[in-house]
Amino acid sequence: MDPELAVRLRSSIERGFERTDTANPRPGTEEGSTGSPLVVTKDRLTRVLACEAHDVASEFGERRPTVAMACGVLVDALFRQLVTVGAINDPMADGMDALACDDQQRPLLRWIESLPSAVRRELEVEVVRQAEALVARWPKLDARWLPRTQETMRCALSGGSLLLTARVDLAIGSPAGKEASIAIVEVKAGKRRAEHRADLHFYALVETLRRGAPPFVVATYYTRTGELDVDPMTEELLVGAARRTRAAVGALVGLAQGASPRRTPNGLCGACAALPECDPGFAYLESRGNGLEVAGLDGLLER
Ligand code: SF4
């Protein structure tokens, strides 16, 4: 891979950011100005590219918990436990204990505890099924590979005015200067989606920008099925990730400056906080004949 690639990727994103006028942030927020960086995560990037109005609604509204979301968070916690401790004893109890230790997950914990017993039972059955599959399929990782769960990766650009940040489910291997030496794995409890690859490419971009070397491979592991989607990293994938990030940054800066958010119906409409006031979103869902998102296990298929 071109040794100057990280420099080129960085300047491409910075040029896109700096071409926008960050001197006039939207009233009420200084994000993107010198006072506070514009923070870009994989979720925010996906949201704003899918629909700007959805991103604004997600920023200020509460995210509605669903059974699918709860299952994903619980299985993520069990995956971390399996990698770090080597065993899962009582999947539902272990998962709930992990949520109780995380301040950010307390609202979800309370929501799960308040579920009707039949729905909670349905959730538990799926969590146990996926945990058993994880234990059966996931290999024990040699400690010499330095497996790390929930590693946070950050890269500040444009003098700190723009911050790309990611937290990966699993990183393996130790950084070795300019050599591609680590692997990144993301765990998903739901079904395969095209966006998952784009998420991983964003992680690879952040890793490349912060260390000067890309991961040699990124992969998504699907706990429902045991499928592993593997992408050896290439220059083309990183350039594509930088272009996508640059487009999202442009849209976010536009919103910060007070531009009217565009509504572009998409697969996120069913779970969008702005849906009750969004005619295009309703029309889109009606045209697909699926109405509001089902908050039961069917939702797992869409996560
Ligand atoms: S309902 Fe759909 S179109 Fe409307 S704001 Fe949300 S994501 Fe955008």
Oligomer status:
single chain
Q: What value does the average pLDDT take?
A: 87
Shape: globular
Terminus-to-terminus distance: 34 Å
Number of domains as seen in the coordinates: 2
Which runs of at least 5 residues are low in confidence (pLDDT < 50)?
Answer: 25-29, 292-303
Kindly state the percentage of residues in helix: 40-55%
Order of secondary-structure elements:
HEHHHHHHEEEHEEHH
Our Rg estimate from Cα atoms comes to: 20 Å
Number of strands: 6
Bound small-molecule species: iron/sulfur cluster
Largest sheet: 6 strands, mixed
Helix tally? 10
Structural class: alpha/beta
Q: What fraction of residues sit in β-strands?
A: 5-15%
Description of the structure:
With 303 residues, this protein is α/β, with parallel strands linked by helices. Helices cover 46% and strands 14% of the residues. Strands 1, 2, 3, 4, 5 and 6 form a six-stranded mixed beta sheet that branches. A hairpin with a 5-residue loop joins strand 5 and strand 6. It binds iron/sulfur cluster. Iron/sulfur cluster (SF4) binds at residues 51, 53-54, 263-266, 268-269, 272, 274-275, 278, 280-281.
In a few lines, what is going on in this structure?
The two termini are 34 Å apart.
Give structural attributes.
alpha/beta; single chain; six-stranded mixed beta sheet; 2 domains
Topology of this protein?
Layout (H helix, E strand, L loop, with lengths): L4 H14 L19 E3 L1 H9 L1 H9 L6 H19 L5 H10 L5 H8 L3 H21 L10 E10 L4 E11 L10 E6 L5 H18 L5 E6 L5 E5 L2 H22 L22 H10 L15
Helix pairs in contact: 1-9, 2-3, 2-9, 4-5, 4-7, 8-9
The structure holds iron/sulfur cluster.
